[in-house]
Amino acid sequence: MDRTLQTGKNYLATVLVMRTKIITLILVLCLINLPGFSQNLSVTFTGTGASTEIDSIEATNLATNQSITLPGNETLELGNGSGIPSDIDLTDNNSVFPNPFIGLATFSTYIEQAQTVYLKVQNLPGQVVAEYSGFVDQGKQQFSIQLKTAGIYSITLLTDQGAASQKMMCTNTGNRTNSIRYDGTKADYSFDGNNSSKTILKRAQSSYFLGFTAGDVMRYKCSSGEYATIKIDSPSASVDYQIEFFECADDDGKNYPVVAIGDQDWMAANLAYLPKVDPSSDGSDSSPYLYVYGYQGSDVSLALEHDNFKMYGVLYNWPAAQIACPEGWHLPTDLEWAWLKEFSNASWLSGFDAMPGGIRQNDGTFGSVGKSAGFWTSTDTDPASAIARNLNFENNLESQEIELKNTGFSVRCVKNQDPSITLPIVNTYPVVGITSCSAEGRGNLISNHALSATVWGICWSTTQNPTLLDHNAGLSEGLGEYTVTLSGLTAGTTYYYRAFATNAAGTGYGAELSFTTLEGGTFTDSRDTRTYHYVKIGGQFWMAENLAYLPVVSQPASMSATDPHYYVYGYDGTDENTAKATANYSTYGVLYNWAASLAACPAGWHLPNKAEFTTLIDHMGGDAIAGYKMKSMHGWNDNAGKNGNGDNSYGFTALPGGDLEGTGVFLNLKDYGSFWTSGADGDANGLMWLLDNFNVGAFLHSYPKSIGVSVRCIKN
Asked: Which of 67, 109, 417, 444 is the most exposed place for a label (fewest CB within 10 A)?
């Protein structure tokens, strides 16, 4: 054979062998990276923050609903295999059947070898509500579980191979008791003595192993003494988790588990701070009230022993919720609840662990325990209402609702961030007292970071997203609800507005709302160049402030039923400029006797007759209620504890300018507002409409023409 040819053949064979090895190596590497050939992930935990020691970790695969508990210094192996296999006779890979259930369920499992087992049921706060310990044979074992309180529970089985847990939900109870009964070994022809794949725990090279497939979401509840932190993750490689423990203790010394959701740290259990307790029949939208579902008394020690307190914590009305969170924590705003989009996934997958604690309804009754839950936000919409997040456990729906503040809901608190980088929180209320040129803007600077605020108020603009660079009115004292006047507005114009508050970190804004000013405008009296606002009410145009034309000023002792006289409340002189410099003139204008009122209105305007005034009164709902709708929102005295102000719902802005009595004495400032009509009642009396601070009505009266009262003109 030619040596050269043989050498070439040997070289070719060598190349083919090398190529075969390379291809084989590539195939092996590819197979290793396939799901069926993936290596285990090693998970360890390191404590930080309030504690550096981790006592235990409860690890749960949320995709399979299987759990294992391990010491904090051990390694958890995640890998292929079921880890905690399910019983093939049950549905949905769940050993509890049915699940959810009504009071009674069956727990089945396969025990690999005869031994003593321990089975316990715990509520979400971790309290053991039922347990069983006893010797069982090899094979499929069955237990009956009864529960007397609706809620979410975990059932844990301890064998000589370790512990395994899973979640279950009791939706109703049917007046049962908490108990676990061993029903014995059940025939199961799907198993034989050599089938160890159905053991409740799978042994692996590590003592702590849990089945895991890439993409599964893991939940780790890490405990350290009185602290607990929940971590949610879907690991793709081995990892050492840094578990931060937080101080989250109420004034009673109770510590709460914490979970990180996004960049926020949340309580992972319902607040249970109970300094007092009230029966559900008592309530308020302004004073704090606290309830324990189903307890109708005022003894805190008895309420603390109630099953619903232990399971669901406390229900708070909105004022109580505002002050209930532990130091360093606060009632979340509605914006901070934005992560909760779909309750069917968000609550459990986030580690929030919502519970159906029911509500104290605003009719004074309890309802919906085991079916739904409500959680207060710190975002209120007006003095009587605030936003709550409602969760329905029957259809897995989440909703944002406006609720009355006397309703009792659960509370979850969120950890404060550094106040130097946190904006103040302020809520926008709807404006009131809208006129053609002004409105009363309202807001609420809530307690969180309120003390750091230096100024707060309302900003507004004719375009959306107003800021302080637009129009604004502010305050610098008086935390909580506040009111400022939005002035200088244009009639018939839409304005956008929002509450604001400023601290060292910047300016925080509330929700944006809008309103439209009433139709109207301004005009100038050519006689003295004074400008007046007017408003359209129905088909009429009325002055929205008292007439202040003062050609001369009379002393109160000078009175006449036939000659024109002009007065300024409280002024006893004859100098017009001095009279015009008084506060009463600036606020309330001039008081006219009937003769002066007939010719007092500017050109293009006139003193209304009885019929024109009656049309106005009828448009506002009639004389029984028109006074309240005509009166200004400020300036009227209270009477017998009742607010004398009105709601000024049509922009008439009636002012309590008082009157000059027939005795020549000024009386009733801030108590009465009276307005002449052009109608007479005989030779001596004129007709006027009178408003007062102790009635909501408007009253037509006949009074001597010599007395002095206010004038409102109507456009020709």
From this structure: 417
